[in-house]
Amino acid sequence: MRPVRFVALGDSLTEGVGDLTEDGPRGWAALLAPSLGAGTEFTNLAVSGAQTRDVLERQTPAALALRPDLVAVVVGVNDTLRHTFDIHAVAARLDQVYAACAREGATLLTACLPDPGAMLGLPRALAAPLARRQRAVNAVVHALSERYGALHLDASDGGWIADRALWSADRLHPGERGHRRLAARFHTLLTAAGHATGRPPSLEPESPAPTRAASLLWLATAGTAWVARRCRDLLPQLLRLALEELRHSARGTGADLDVAASAAVAAALAALPERRPAGAPAPTALPSRAVLPGSGPLDLEVGVS
Q1: Do 45 and 71 meet the contact criterion of CB atoms below 8 Å apart?
Q2: What range(s) does the SGNH hydrolase-type esterase domain occupy (predicted)?
């Protein structure tokens, strides 16, 4: 039996930012790979800053050329941090990525993620629009993961978010402890599905947590540059969204924004075409009711067909 071929796609989280070794970033996927079984062949194609478009157009073709058995697709946060955010486009791209992997017989590994506004501790008026975007992405990822039979990890909430010991200086990426926690949670999923035969990744870090001085240094250097880039791209739109948030809050109509976001997710999922290889069974239908976290349930009157 040939070794398992594991390919990881995504952005800085999967690239390993926050878990720096002498050889560069490592991350949860690299920590997970040895626990899949002896001789696992691991390739990490994730790139910092990648959006769903990058995963679809660049990373997926490279991944499929490797004929993988297992493909991790964890992406979407960077889409929410751009002024071009469009949940319809995100859903369409992820659907194409998942479908392409499924057609090749690869097992999909996916995850829902925390919203960046909460992680950064932004004021509510600024954080709420980002949270709504991330909840929309998570709803799409959850629905499509179910549709394509992916092994799906909900990492969008829970105690690990509040535990600062698990996070790096930038407050957006896990530190080594956090990456190990993610790897162990994915290993649990894979073991239950019969895809992992090795011991679970260790939760004990090999390196000390970043000091306060290191955190301040990051904020003064790389952190400042990151904020400057986002200010040029996202901030003007985010300020407009924050004003809209404040107006709705003053009127007591804030729930209308959640309803609109839920409707956008439903429309994006309903617009997806059926994707089925010849002779293969139909993918799982999307649920008739979907809940966008933080809002009420929404009937999806039009299914994917």
Answers
A1: no
A2: 8-181
Residue of 78, 105, 64 whose CA lies nearest to 230:
78
The pLDDT tens digits for 183-230 are: 999 999 999 999 999 999 999 988 766 666 766 666 555 555 655 565
Interhelix angle 87-103/124-147, nearest 10 degrees: 30
Q: Is 21 helix (H, G, I), strand (E, B) or coil?
A: strand
Kindly state the average pLDDT of the residues 137-165: 91
Residue pair 132/139 in contact by the 8 Å Cβ criterion: no
pLDDT score of 299 more than 90:
no
Region of residue 76 (phi > 0: left; psi between -120 and 50: alpha; otherwise: beta): left
Q: Chain-centre distance of CA 26, in angstroms? A: 17
Overall domain count for the chain: 1
- pTM listed for this prediction: 0.85
Q: Which residue range(s) make up the domain with 41?
A: 5-250
Domain membership flag for residue 266: no
Distances (CA, A) of 119 to 113, 128, 291: 11, 12, 22
